[in-house]
Automatic annotation (TrEMBL):
<dbReference type="Pfam" id="PF02771">
    <property type="entry name" value="Acyl-CoA_dh_N"/>
</dbReference>
<dbReference type="GO" id="GO:0004361">
    <property type="term" value="F:glutaryl-CoA dehydrogenase activity"/>
</dbReference>
<dbReference type="InterPro" id="IPR036250">
    <property type="entry name" value="AcylCo_DH-like_C"/>
</dbReference>
<dbReference type="GO" id="GO:0046949">
    <property type="term" value="P:fatty-acyl-CoA biosynthetic process"/>
</dbReference>
<keyword id="KW-0285">Flavoprotein</keyword>
<dbReference type="Pfam" id="PF00441">
    <property type="entry name" value="Acyl-CoA_dh_1"/>
</dbReference>
<feature type="domain" description="Acyl-CoA oxidase/dehydrogenase middle">
    <location>
        <begin position="139"/>
        <end position="229"/>
    </location>
</feature>
<keyword id="KW-0274">FAD</keyword>
<dbReference type="InterPro" id="IPR009100">
    <property type="entry name" value="AcylCoA_DH/oxidase_NM_dom_sf"/>
</dbReference>
<feature type="domain" description="Acyl-CoA dehydrogenase/oxidase N-terminal">
    <location>
        <begin position="22"/>
        <end position="135"/>
    </location>
</feature>
<dbReference type="InterPro" id="IPR037069">
    <property type="entry name" value="AcylCoA_DH/ox_N_sf"/>
</dbReference>
<dbReference type="InterPro" id="IPR013786">
    <property type="entry name" value="AcylCoA_DH/ox_N"/>
</dbReference>
<keyword id="KW-0809">Transit peptide</keyword>
<dbReference type="GO" id="GO:0050660">
    <property type="term" value="F:flavin adenine dinucleotide binding"/>
</dbReference>
<comment type="similarity">
    <text>Belongs to the acyl-CoA dehydrogenase family.</text>
</comment>
<keyword id="KW-0560">Oxidoreductase</keyword>
<feature type="domain" description="Acyl-CoA dehydrogenase/oxidase C-terminal">
    <location>
        <begin position="241"/>
        <end position="388"/>
    </location>
</feature>
Length: 395
């Protein structure tokens, strides 16, 4: 007997996951999607090809007006929305481009979260409202040229000189660095690793842009150079001691990636479905051939499983139950599977798959970076391995 309430099968939501979202969550998703379709999608392939975003400060202000900068934080002009809301926003932003989602993630989950969680009230009052509005851009200086997965071995130093702090060192692969107004910088001190709020107009601070990237080209990526950067004692983040401070920020950013990577996968999957229905070979659309259907089914299944995992982690995070190991699970699985989805989509498009006329190769190249930033496959595997077995295997 046919159920009269049974909805039509939707190839873009084959498992009916939309039914698990509230109307408010769908409204957040739809508003971000609309903004991306209007403000980013028509231009992003050109930005990627040129390696430059037109009017990035204007774009940041529009993202601020939309409410997505620090949207999961409370107070100080932040939207105070749920983890699921933030995840859905990240998915839509990365469906446009990983570089745009990176801009938002670094601003909100790294720079703003560090100040919001670990900063002085004066830091929060000074920086967070302007950052939430997109009037001020932030960056997060942790990774170094020789120390990525091992931040505890960083060489950047902060020493006391009277009442001041003086910072010396280098940071590498820093999103937003060359356009940032404020940097959260982590450094070794006599009291362990500490964080500092560094206005980028401080003498001795510079941020040369990194050129010749073949991934995340629609994103500003920089080196941070700190040569005798003198800061007042109040620049110190007082509550952050040791690696707990920066790692707490990375957990926030990794959670956004759990959702964001799926946006790149969805965009590539949708493109492959449409292309397979239009491209004819031997008198039939290639969607009518078994091998193409097998690829599309496998891609859809992995996307669905990743989305269910992301939503589950979002609900746990909103309940205060999400553990860092669980976020590692989501980051490891969803980026790896999203990259495989993009690679499979590329094969369906054939030679057209390498053209920027289609989004697939751009997403595929971007995810090669997302795969290794905020924790490599190896590091997240070892985090989960230790959690499952009780034995650390990092050394």
């Amino acid at each position: 007997m046919t159920n009269p309430q049974l909805t039509r099968f939707d190839p873009h939501d084959p498992a009916g996951i939309d039914d698990l979202l509230s109307d408010d969550e769908k409204a957040v998703r739809d508003s971000v999607r609309e903004m991306c379709e209007r403000r980013i999608n028509p231009f992003v392939a050109d930005w990627f090809e040129r390696g430059e975003i037109d009017d990035i400060r204007g774009l940041a202000k529009e993202l601020g007006s939309l409410g997505v900068l620090g949207m999961h934080l409370d107070g100080y002009g932040c939207a105070g929305m749920s983890a699921v809301d933030y995840g859905l926003a990240c998915l839509e932003l990365e469906a446009a481009d990983s570089g745009i989602r990176s801009l938002v993630s670094v601003q909100g989950s790294l720079a703003m979260f560090a100040i919001w969680r670990w900063g002085r009230k004066a830091h929060k009052d000074e920086w967070l409202p302007k950052m939430a509005a997109g009037e001020v851009i932030g960056c997060f200086g942790l990774t170094e040229p020789d120390h990525g997965s091992d931040p505890g071995s960083m060489r950047t130093r902060a020493r006391r000189d009277g009442d001041d702090w003086v910072l010396d060192g280098r940071k590498m692969w820093i999103t937003n660095g060359s356009v940032a107004d404020v940097a959260v910088v982590w450094a070794q001190t006599g009291d362990g690793i500490r964080g500092f709020v560094v206005p980028t107009d401080t003498p001795g601070f510079s941020a040369p842009i990194i050129q010749h990237k073949q991934s995340l080209r629609a994103s500003v990526t920089s080196e941070l150079v700190l040569d005798d950067v003198r800061l007042p004692s109040t620049a110190l983040l007082p509550e952050a001691r040791g690696l707990k401070g920066p790692l707490s920020c990375l957990d926030e950013a990794r959670y956004g990636i759990v959702w964001g990577a799926l946006g790149a996968a969805r965009s590539s999957l949708d493109c492959a479905i449409a292309y397979a229905g239009e491209r004819t070979q031997f008198g039939r659309p290639i969607a009518a051939y078994q091998l193409t259907q097998a690829k599309l089914v496998d891609m859809s299944l992995e996307y669905i499983k990743g989305l269910l995992l992301a939503l589950h982690l979002g609900r746990r995070k909103d309940s205060g139950l999400a553990r860092p190991e669980q976020v590692s699970m989501g980051k490891l699985n969803n980026v790896r599977e999203s990259l495989d989805i993009c690679r499979a989509a590329r094969t369906i498009l054939g030679a057209n798959g390498v053209s920027l006329e289609y989004p697939v190769i751009r997403h595929m190249n971007n995810l090669e970076s997302v795969l290794t930033y905020e924790g490599t496959v190896e590091m997240h595997t070892l985090i989960l391995g230790q959690a499952i077995t009780g034995h650390p295997a990092f050394h």
